[in-house]
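Suppose a colleague, Dr. K., hands you the sequence of a protein chain of 353 amino acids and asks what its three-dimensional shape might be. Before reaching for any lab equipment, you can write down a predicted structure in token form. Begin with the sequence itself:
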Amino acid sequence: MKRLIFILFLTLLAGRLAGQVAPKMTSTLQVDADANSRTNPGDTLRYTITFTNTSGTNLLNVQFNNLSFPNQTLVGGSIKTTPVARPDTYSGVVGNTLFNVPSTSGVLTNDSDADGDLISVVTFSPTSAQGGTVIVTNNGGFSFSPAVGYTGTDTFVYTISDGNGGTNSSVVTLTIGNRVWYVNNAGVNGDGRQSTPFNSFASLNGAGDVDGTNDFIYLFPGSGSYGAGLVLESDQKLIGAGLALVVGGATIIPAGNRPTLGLGGAGVICSTNNTIQGLNITATAGKGIAGTNVGTLTVSSVMIAATGGAALDVDTGTAAITLDSAFSTNSTVDGLRLNALNGTVTINGGLVV
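The predicted structure, expressed as tokens, is then:
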């Protein structure tokens, strides 16, 4: 009597449910020598044994000894295991900002294949659970752009292959914290993300605007002046391209040329605890920087030139202000007004007329 020849193919999966390792074995007819769709001597069977770890932790020294199959002969070199894709987590993602991860710290760094096969990413979710945009390269590096305005936790799924038919999938979890709104008046109007910035302050000013407390607003160098001024909300930071955009200790955009805002109107109206850096303010019809009950107002690497209003009009709070220069002409009130302020104000040059 001929003996059946079988191929043993092992599949390893990682689970998260409390319990035990539960092997499951199935068989399929791999080679049907007499083409009768039935298992007969001379045919080749393919056995797949799936091990699911439901313990929630890594298990060591797992053994499977049930490899006795009467009247069957193992095909040499046919025992294979699938690769194991393990969950990945990344923090420090910034809202509205492209997040790039090189292959050296990408999704494959904690994945493995017991056979020593070279593993690669073969598929991935191009859209994350919260609507972000995902691109993963076959070497595990990836880029992620969060959905517009979203902060919180987001996920996407990817699948790896060992090149021999074995695949496995896992989940990448990303934590999106701080949020930046980007403005560049040199291009068409976008949605405020780094790759598609707004081209004016229209979406950031007034009732129903998209920005919120603690947000960053970043101004690219742009083309000419940004026009009418900007009303900040509490704890917001207005950063011009003259200084590097640094969020959470990470430099997102290096320092470049300063943008100018305020042409045709006022400059910046502050709320509480604002930061203004890396830009020039040319207020041709109003005040340069103004605010009441400003909390702690931090200003540096800024030049102000105001016509018809004060260069600075700040009332009640603590100042940490250093201006490159401040000019005020034809103001109907004081060209420089600082009232009930603690802290320091340093102006390195300028003229009040």
